[in-house]
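Researcher: I'm preparing a figure for a lab meeting and need a structural model of a single chain. I don't have an experimental structure, so a prediction will have to do for now. The sequence is pasted below. Please return the structure as tokens so I can convert it later.
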Amino acid sequence: MTDTPDDLTLTRSGLQASGTGRVLLIACGALAREILALRDLNGWDHLDLACLPAILHNHPERITGAVRAAVDKHRASHERICVVYADCGTGGQLQAACAEMGVEMIEGPHCYAFFEGVEAFADKGEVTAFYLTDFLVRQFDAFVWKPLGLDRHPELREMYFGNYETLVYQAQTDDAALTALARDHAARLGLRFERRLTGYGDLATAMERWAVAGR
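Model: Understood. Here is the structure written out token by token.
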């Protein structure tokens, strides 16, 4: 069983590969808890994990280069590499880079879609919903409140969130404390609150496929 990494570490510096698995997953640090939980639950010991800093999501133009560098760094030490990012605001650049490098990535525009199921998410067509995952509920101040300057200028809230109606908490785990915290975040933003217990969604499906293929 691998110790769960601290969220602040994943935000700032990521998580280094152990070098013990045949298949390396290069992932966003915001997904580390979920990936490790699925790996340990299913006994996928042949999967190794390297996480890039979660804070890259605030700078999506940097994600493709960071993933490319990580693939180059680890290609010689692993039989197979898979990328646990969706498009994540790269405008198709990450998908193109992965195709060029011959590595598979998870499908979908972002993690909100693949946690809920890409097709189900698209069918909803929600344009007035603001989404949080377990990670973002924990790191709301670091990823939302402070980067938008709302800690210094709360009057900007209407400018940023005036067109939203609902905060949707996509819960990976059934955690009452996280649910209460997510509800508080919705109140801070002046939005209605909705909780959906999505579990791991398409992340679990993709990891199972990679684990089976890598045995």
